[in-house]
């Protein structure tokens, strides 16, 4: 069906009347004016009126190769014409087998077994269920508690939302009771004035160890952590945090799940950030989003040989891993992911991220000079500006959802962001050029200045 401007009011009404969006505010859905994104090219998207915007968040941290790529859709079409669907339960397919092989070639250490899912939430869910399965088989039925962190986001299934730690999202929906323990915020920005970053790091690592000891190591199954907490506000823990946490986990036989749904596939300039950036080889990695550059849904949970050995052969006691989806390893998604990897290699996308990251971070950090900005932080092509009242006596008020105000100003100037309370986060398509980075930060700076004028 093609849409014309003449019936666009109908479309807007259908969306309001019949379409329940994720995280929909229920008080007055009609009051929220959504941008209808109808087209895109490179780092830009266009709305129904043909207005062009830089896509600051790359969709939802996912459109790595940018919009309008033809290789991925062509590979999908070819696969769909040849063989559109194969049951992963009873059969297999060369696209998903080849993709598992290509992923295993790029993962750190001995993470060589790939379980395909439909997205990030189901990847995290499957990782957690695999941990339960392994511990049950090993006779460790008591070892079930998952340690997560405040501000973490791991997904929207019952299990993955239960390990998510964003306070604002809690309370409306039920969560698994007694399963999860949350560690305090690991954001160095919120540390006490007298505390050094090194002291803060010690404290955060001690938080993990103390939690394990408090719960009892025999009851703790796994620690789950995003290398950088993405939708919690691009929280970059102090250098060395993940490595020291992994050491604590090893000491108490606690598995380490690294949730790379956002950081995987190039966001930090590597296929996976765990080893390359944070110097850890976790037990399980979850990924999604950038795996297909968002062109089609797919996720994966990648498991180490060590864990597979724990439950294989005689140790399996005849058990089956009874977890899976109709669309696990969907051939069309697998073909998209394979084409995506080819595009990354042909166009040297990882190298490009390394080349443009210094400018991105320089322009990002410079925003900290603005009076409204408390912290401007990031890593690779992930950034966040967090606003605050700068000094006592300042007239700037935090009663406003400042992120939304900045976003509204920037949208008028051609930049989409992701507002989160007093923050705006952004993670542009990885193909962004240096001139476009400058354009993006020029608009963002101006959006912050205009918001400041609104507030004083
Ligand atoms: N894990 C992380 C770190 C995420 O950021 C997200 C989504 O933003 C998820 C898991 C859930 O992924 P999905 O929305 O594909 O289910």
TrEMBL record:
Domain of life: Bacteria
Taxonomic source organism: Roseovarius faecimaris
Family as reported in the entry's similarity comment: Belongs to the class-III pyridoxal-phosphate-dependent aminotransferase family.
Protein name: Aminotransferase
Gene3D superfamilies according to UniProt: Aspartate Aminotransferase, domain 1 (3.90.1150.10), Type I PLP-dependent aspartate aminotransferase-like (Major domain) (3.40.640.10)
GO molecular function: pyridoxal phosphate binding; transaminase activity
Sorted UniProt keywords: Aminotransferase, Pyridoxal phosphate, Transferase
NCBIfam families per UniProt: PRK07036.1
Membrane-spanning segments: none
Record has Transferase as a keyword: yes
One Pfam family recorded for the sequence: Aminotran_3
CDD domains reported for this sequence: OAT_like (cd00610)
Cofactor: pyridoxal 5'-phosphate
Keyword Transferase included in the entry's annotation: yes
